[in-house]
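We read letters as residues; the fold follows as tokens. A sample entry reads:
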Amino acid sequence: MAVYRSWNRTDASPKRAAESGAEFFDRIAGPFWDQVRDVINEWLSHFPDQAQSGLRSRLLDRNSDANVSSALWELYLHEMLLGSGCIVEIERPIGTRGKNPDFLVARDGERFVVEAIWTSQRLGGTVPNPLPPQLIDAIDRLPSPNFFVSYKLVRAGSATPPQKGLKRELTRWLASLDPDQVIAEYAGKVPLPSHTWQEAGWCLTFEALPRSSGKRGDPTSRTIGIHPAMWLDEEANLVHDAVKRKGGKYGDLALPFIVAVGHAAVFPEAEDTENALYGTSVEYLHASPRRFGRMPDGYWTPTLDDHPHSRVSGVLTVDNPAPWTWTKNTPTLWRSSDPNSLPAPVLPAWATAQLVEVQVEHQPAARPTHAALGLPEHWPIGDAFPRRHGSNPS
């Protein structure tokens, strides 16, 4: 049961704002993306027959990018387990609450449970762009061989703005600018050229960002160089909330239990995960000698004599996993600091982190990620969006 069929794909342009992830994966042309589709098809075939249909439907869901991302995350985890010599059963009934965790795993005489969660499913992903996706795509497709643009929404209208006037106005403005002159003036502290567009109750301001000389004239390049900064609040809580959601879902499993978090974050930091699981690191400034400790705000931090989260033996994280990072980002197993937790097994392709007193000790993986996945080190091979013939060399 294949996810993607073979057909003559010709559109090699980057993902459009109005395009879902499922549409993009099925539409995008080129050898790089053929490799991605082939591997997804192959990995799906490694699932039991009864599990393939549901996973395929999620991979092709055009209404939810989070559903596509979470399905890809489960596909990756399953292949990682198989490539590490594990026997994997899918959604086997286990635990005292009558629910079925994602994977029951056996390796070298040990059994353990792995439950997958994609953080953006739980927390809604990134903050949505205030511009209609059709308008973003219209700006991005403008012919602008010499400049990128950044934009800022000043005022939003009540309906989708007409695109024709905007495209005509921006094209004329960008064509009137000399990129080398703008670079020279900017070096002399002259602000970048700006332009304000107003129509139908909408008002946007644009800045022109000169392309470097080697990057000019590429017809495949997007025009928008910088989108407005839109950050998630309390991003460091992504892992904590994801693990808390899954940690008590199955009751007593009587086996080591690992929650695998696909960590979708703008700028993921290991320190954020460390603090989320073990408690925020603090220094007691007035202690002599200097003393460090941790706040009681971590997932595994006991409250008095209570150990509410001891059922979770470890948390496996990979930052922003996607097909183009599968062979590059090393999974990290954060081992429980709760003495009542069953010890989590460690696969060779996993790095580890463990709390020792108040410091976290890290150990590298014993095996490369790509080897466990059965892929070349630099897979996918080639460029995702190669420059077309006729553009200037970079």
Q: What stands out?
A: Residues 121-127, 230-234, 389-394 have pLDDT under 50 and may be disordered. Residues 305 and 338 are 11 Å apart (CA to CA). The chain has two domains: 65-125+234-373, 133-226. The longest helix spans residues 65-83.
